[in-house]
Amino acid sequence: MKVYIASDHAGYEMKEAIKHHFSAGFDWEDLGTHSSESVDYPDYAHPLAEMVAQSPEARAVLLCGTGNGVAMTANKHADVRAALCWNTEIAALARQHNNANVVVLPARFIPAEEAFAIVETFFNTPFEGGRHARRVEKINTR
Ligand code: RB5
Q1: Tens of pLDDT along 106-125?
Q2: Which amino acids are annotated catalytic?
């Protein structure tokens, strides 16, 4: 499965760890950043969100220090539903209820093992549809 991934400098190490941990079965397309040198998170979140907006069935992982900067940026794009997830329960609900297509990780606030578990849960949890489909449809209408 092709998966987009991007981070700023604060998420760089965790991004690399996630790619390594899930090297089997995931076809990563890494949109940067490629070092721990300081960068501006929108410069990485916008390009990733553009890829997901072009094919909303795509899946992606975004990271920054808190997760908030990249989530705010990605969610400016129609059909991108970027969910800030700090535990597996939030990740499961982001898929079940929100049909999130981007999982956002707060790299400075969760350990790597938690990040791996969140990514695993996110990619293995289906959207429930039903009443949630109606609500997700309404996200883009205003
Ligand atoms: C970078 O210092 C930090 O501001 C960024 O990673 C993120 O937390 C912004 O929301």
Answers
A1: 999 999 999 999 999 999 99
A2: 64, 97
